[in-house]
Amino acid sequence: MSVALLDLRGIQKSFLGVQALAGVDLHVRAGEVLAVLGENGAGKSTLMKVIAGVHQPDHGEIRVDGKPVTIKNTQHAQALGISIIHQEFNLIPHLSVAENIFLGREPMKPGRLLIDWKKMMEETRALLKKVGLSVHPKRLVGSLNVAEQQLVEIAKSLSFQPKVIIMDEPTAALNDEETHNLFAIIQELKEAGTGIIYISHRLEEIFHISDHIMILRDGTFVDRLRTDAANKDQVVALMVGRELTDYYPVLAEPSDQVQMEVRNLFAGGRLHQVSFRVHKGEILGIAGLMGAGRSELAKALFGVIPVEGGDILLNGTKMMPKSPKHAIRQGIAMVSDDRKGEGLVLSMSIEENLTLANLDPVIHFGWINQSKQKEVVSRNMERLKIKAASSELPVQFLSGGNQQKVVLGKWLETRPQVLILHEPTRGVDVGAKAEIYQLMKELAEQGVTILLLSSELPELMGMSHRILVMHEGRITGEFDRKEATQEKIMHCATGGDQSGVA
Amino acid sequence: MAWLNKYRTLFVLILIVGIASFLNEAFLTPDNLLIVARQVSVTAIVAAGMTLVILVAGIDLSVGSVLALCGVVVAGVLGSTGNVVAAIAASLGVGALFGLVNGFLTTKGGMPSFIVTLATMAIARAITLVFTNGNPEVIRDASFREIGGGYIAGIPIPVIVMFVIFAVLYLMLKHTRFGRYIYSVGGNETASRLTGINTDRIIMAAFVLSGLFAALASLIYTARLSSAQPTAGTGLELDAIAAVILGGTSLAGGQGGVVGTLIGAFIMGILDNILNLMDVNPYYQGVVKGIVIILAVYADNKFTSLLRARRKHPPVAQEKAAGGETVKGA
Questions:
Q1: pTM of this prediction?
Q2: What CATH number is associated with residue A228?
Q3: ipTM of predicted complex
């Protein structure tokens, strides 16, 4: 075989005494998709930063095209043909799509004084077409939704015509259609001889797209497998270092009692006549593509956006959530899909975040009782298996999975009757995922009603009693857990009606 | 390391006190320290309110002008009625009202507080000038003057008022629901609203308290001078902001506290005092203060990033230090 495009050997890196990488090897060949797997904190992101030139390794060797190099910084990495698609966007919201893509290397007119806008627009258009994004190059990035921004980020990284592309959770914000589109791009890149390092928590994707799987655990290299010779259980066991049983736990049957009923709901200019019932102890999955109205539905039920028509009944009584505060008092809780933007106060400690939604039990005569607070906190840290050195640590220092558990704990403290979970396992590692699923099962058994909004179909099918499918603000399908298939759901999610597939 | 982080502003203060007492032996005497404390009290009380506003990620530029206006209100009411209680109440009312307007326009009006308070700063100053025609109004009431010049148990009343305010705010921020919400709203307003907190009300309350403290500081200032000066408090908002920032409160909101602000105010007061004791031309004093602010904040940033790097989760911890290049998910 040919020389590896990128070859890392014995990479070690520690930060002030804490070893993040303990001798890791990695190589990518032309036209290869290498999936890098590991739980949060396994060292994936440090390794990627070493490749991108953000960190210098303490020991070890990096070869690009067989030649030893020291990657000095990110510009140098780009010059060497290494490009990163960030999970969190480095786009500037007030600049246009084209300006973002060509930031710092705008095509110039002869004389190199003026920007060649025409050329810039043309090249942007070509790149956007390639990634399947139909927005105008002059649109401001800030006006795009998360999925569109992700595609701009991908377009930007393609514009460097890199030899090696690192994709860090590129599909976290994408729906299935966009994900398929991305896979087509990856296929093209492969054929053109680009090496791809692909990081994702979604095993289905990794098995679909990768050639090899490399597994990291606690900063050490665990194994490298051929994807077609590996299976999911084996990979998960290698990642967590133990067998994970009951990935999707068996759900108990919900009661017959209707907990919440929605009748002809209109909201946010996007929901049209949405009606459904959900029972006590039931997990109702809600599927749909980006823009189908799922988040509007969640926000309307939680009082974030005003209801424009229709009724919401809770235990048979009408209620119109006027604000999140009002909704919480009625027994509704919502875990947002934007954990950092809407779920947590990153600068505050685990303790403060856990008690934020319901301070009543820890307040006596207007005074926050520290020992009561510790009680609430240790109960949640135990129940949710939150791993942290101290509960006084600001949540910004926690991994994605632990952060999500803090959000869940915060809402459980309000003792909700209806819990809306919007992408509850996004950016969460496999171990924490399984724990969150187990928690959902237990909550449902305790009579909590759960609305599960997710873009991951396997998760929806594994964790819901019933699945509703939305398309353009309407409900276009409803499936029982047993009869649901990805094909049927996708059919309804793209506007087909249920009879077409039933 | 955590304790070092917490008390870093205090170290700067001790350092400056050390240097000051070395440079001039008149500095470290009880009499001089009480003078410093009394001089600091006006700025410190205004900075206390400013801390609350900055903690909710706002800014209040109107405090200096509001202080002047409140002084004129006190003098006016006192002159026409002779009733000290009514005068104080009217002054506090005007301060709170300006705070309410600032808070209302910022939250319900959806305007940046910088712009809103820049406007109310101009308005309050203008009203002051209209009322006084630009002339100071003398106050003759002896009992009112006590607020600025009196002593209790040998300690100047302004100093007592200052320490009481800071103690109350400290406890409030640390131990009450309101305090918790202030940090939460400043740290992440959206998440706070979605957690059921009435964020507008918290932000408005911070502005009202800021206006109220400006009025309180005005009582002390006016009583000290025995007159309401229409130009009082010019530039005071900047001193207050400087004290807050020296005290380690983040302009981005959500992080910091009043203890740091008190120390910050003292650092600046001691600088003034020692420069005076050493007969430095007052025109140069701004230069020294400016340099100290830059050095302190620079050292603070260096120190914070060093501390971040020492945290438990190195990959995440490195994010800030690495600037815009973030790779996450591992």
A1: 0.79
A2: 3.40.50.300
A3: 0.84
